[in-house]
Amino acid sequence: MSTNKIHKKVPDFRLSPTVDKVGVEERVARFQTRSIKNESKMQGLKMVLNMIDLTTLEGKDTPGKVRQLCYKAQHLHDVQPDLPTVAAICVYPSMVAEAKKALGNSGIKVASVSTAFPSGQAPHEIKIMDTRFAVENGADEIDMVISRGKFLAGEYNFVFDEIAAIKEACGSARLKVILETGELASLDQVRRASDIAMYAGADFIKTSTGKIQPAATMQVTYTMLCAIKDFYLKTGVKVGMKPAGGISNSKLALHNLVMVKETLGAGWLNNEWFRFGASSLANDVLMQIMKQTTGHYQSADYFSID
Prior knowledge:
The protein is of the alpha/beta class. It is 45% helix and 11% strand. It has an eight-stranded parallel β-sheet with strand order 7-6-5-4-3-2-1-8.
């Protein structure tokens, strides 16, 4: 696994490429016409399951709820023993130690949001402390939010420096940078924010917190995938992608996998480089897997409530 370090030749982010919105719409429409059948569909569904960051990020979260989610992550559907696990559990920093203990040596990662998620409206020192607290309690991955107000005011160097500082505070933990694309207003801004995050050291770029709509539209995700491709061609550094928010059904998840493969290639089709941020997606994937296996749908009552 490679880790994205801050790139020495930092471009002028005011000159980030403009995005052909019509072209993006047309390309996404073609991805949505793909039909995946039988064995390929089962393979894709299991791949989706293994790419999920199973998430609980509510003010009412309790240690008991986190333990329950960790149990679900390890026992997705016990009547289907050959299922992969999800990639990670994503929680607030205060719940990291609980999640780490509950997951034990399962191999499932613990991801933690930080930097005053979801608003990002906190002093720099608090954001650093937030990140270090999560890492010290065992977080394998950090999902930070950018300062959207600074970004929209054109203070790109501020955003760059802040991401770089959080990257340093992460130590060995991988850094996912949340752009909160629903607040960025245009695909051009999404592209610019993606470039800033990658050059500042992001290991992943992520669409959304899940608290703002629209969130992970395919148009936004495709724009970010193209930014990753260009960055890789220029630097040789791989960066992962995490669409989050609004991806709640298997069909949309599979369309995203098709888009990843045709844009970045099969090398990104694993949970080291692609994730889904989701809470309800896992149950829909499980229902579809049982449909493929048995020929009929199981009632939602057979699956745990997230």
